[in-house]
Write a structure and sequence with these properties.
Radius of gyration: 14 Å
Strand order of the largest sheet: 1-2-3-4
Number of domains: 1
Shape: globular
Distance between the termini: 39 Å
Helix content: under 10%
Largest sheet: 4 strands, antiparallel
CATH architecture: 7 Propeller
Order of helices and strands: EEEEEEEEEEEE
CATH topology: Methylamine Dehydrogenase, Chain H
Strand content: over 45%
CATH class: Mainly Beta
């Protein structure tokens, strides 16, 4: 794993594996296989630095891009991703609730609960 990380903002292991996702200010997410000490690939799509990353057991990860105000669900095997919008300010954190639902929070204190198929709700804390 000698490849340099550029200012990592978050790290998340895929549950039950040695697959690691790293979020970076350079707008990318890097995928690593820690057991093999290997860099796997780079995921591109955010328009601003990636501030948060989370993962569960499926081969996918969830990220948010701060000022680009998006959360993205990365489907690794399919080499695709879904984009979720809805915050009016910088989206700073995302966390999985289950394999099918997650929450996102912004710098104004708004928290939104969402289904990974597009459903959503919101709350302000």
């Amino acid at each position: 794993m000698a490849r340099a990380l550029r200012t990592p903002q978050g790290l998340a292991f895929r549950r039950g594996t040695y697959q690691l996702f790293s979020a970076s200010e350079d707008r990318t997410i890097k995928v690593w296989e820690v057991a093999e000490k290997a860099y796997v690939e780079t995921l591109f799509g955010h328009q601003e630095g990636v501030l948060s990353v989370d993962a569960l057991s499926r081969e996918r990860c969830l990220t948010c891009g701060g000022r680009d105000r998006t959360a993205r669900l990365w489907k690794i095997p399919e080499e695709s991703h879904l984009v979720f919008r809805g915050h009016n300010t910088s989206m700073d954190v995302v966390r999985w609730l289950s394999d099918d639902a997650f929450v996102s929070g912004d710098d104004a204190g708004c928290v939104r609960a969402r289904g990974s198929c597009g459903g959503r709700g919101s709350a302000t804390g």
